[in-house]
């Protein structure tokens, strides 16, 4: 039983000098982030497959129990839609191999056009990975959330290979109109889908989007607090990623979420202590 928490990235301009030292060499940024959180979304791998040396550097900067949820390249999920992807998948799996057990799941984020008719394709793709890699799938086609038959078919396909369904909860974000530039930008880009709170495996993964106001973010995650506590008591080990439109306070909010869960599940292991940020000096 373990709760991992994290953010959408491990470096952000607004964290520099406040949460993380500044300046900080690129090869040290993940190490300092890992003092705040014990998981991270691997969004960068969607745009470019890293080199093995880069993955080895990520491994060297993190403890063995740190977890990456690494997103498959867009050529696999969005351009080729999981067909004829042997070459890019081999390159990707070879590239992330140095991370070893730190790879919590391969994150299969599918485009909104990938609908119920495409589920057999998803099933074939997942079966090829099921013997060696754990997968977690994020779908954005509305039918999976509004049509019970489509949802059941997807759940059956995922359960057959012990794959998880990742919900991206934006319901709290879309409750009220945006009030900042970052919120206005997110308003046009983030998916607006019904809430889903069902776990299929013993390691559920949740992506939660709050608001730029930390108190509103905290108020919006209360349902996930209850669900996460229940999952832990059932023996599951969830991973929860906390997003806000500007992500300025995402690491502190992720720790706050972990603290609130741990207050209700005292046996939960604590997070690591952040590496201190040295005060700025003139000399």
UniProtKB/TrEMBL annotation:
Coiled coil segments of this chain: none
TM annotation in the entry: none
Signal sequence region: none
Protein name: DUF72 domain-containing protein
Organism: Micromonospora endophytica
């Amino acid at each position: 039983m373990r709760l991992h928490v994290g953010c959408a990235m491990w470096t952000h301009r607004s964290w520099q000098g406040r949460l993380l030292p500044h300046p900080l060499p690129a090869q040290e940024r993940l190490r300092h982030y890992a003092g705040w959180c014990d998981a991270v979304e691997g969004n960068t791998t969607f745009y470019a497959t890293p080199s093995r040396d880069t993955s080895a550097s990520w491994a060297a900067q993190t403890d063995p129990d740190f977890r990456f949820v690494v997103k498959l390249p867009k050529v696999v999920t969005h351009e080729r839609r999981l067909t004829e992807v042997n070459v890019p998948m081999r390159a990707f799996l070879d590239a992330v191999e140095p991370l070893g057990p730190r790879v919590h799941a391969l994150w299969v984020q599918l485009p909104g056009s990938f609908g119920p008719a495409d589920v057999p394709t998803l099933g074939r793709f997942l079966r090829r990975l099921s013997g060696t890699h754990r997968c977690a799938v994020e779908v954005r086609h509305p039918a999976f959330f509004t049509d019970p038959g489509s949802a059941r078919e997807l759940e059956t396909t995922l359960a057959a290979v012990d794959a998880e369904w990742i919900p991206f909860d934006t319901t709290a974000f879309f409750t009220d109109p945006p009030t900042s530039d970052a919120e206005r930008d997110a308003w046009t880009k983030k998916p607006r889908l019904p809430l889903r709170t069902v776990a299929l495996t013993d390691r559920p993964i949740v992506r939660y989007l709050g608001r730029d106001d930390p108190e509103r973010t905290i108020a919006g995650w209360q349902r996930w607090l209850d669900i996460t506590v229940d999952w832990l008591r059932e023996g599951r080990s969830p991973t929860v990623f906390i997003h806000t439109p500007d992500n300025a306070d995402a690491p502190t909010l992720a720790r706050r979420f972990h603290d609130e869960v741990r207050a209700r599940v005292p046996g939960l292991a604590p997070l690591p202590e952040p590496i201190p940020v040295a005060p700025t000096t003139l000399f």
